[in-house]
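chain below, 70 aa
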Amino acid sequence: MTDLLFLGNLGTGEIVIIAIVVLLLFGGKKIPELMKGIGKGVRNFKDGVKGIEDDIKIDDTTTNNTDSEK
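prediction:
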């Protein structure tokens, strides 16, 4: 797993070129906004996954309690 999926072996030169291209495409002011948006998206996704896990735990607890009462 030393290779990053589809990226292969990236050296310092390639990473610098990619960073320059991203800077040219988005501009210096847009990159922090882009990263902030990505961070909010990841946080919302994690909250959603946690909510689903909590719902599953509640359902399991409820199911176990009703089974033991019978």
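The radius of gyration is 22 Å. The CA atoms of residues 24 and 62 lie 55 Å apart.
thats it, cya
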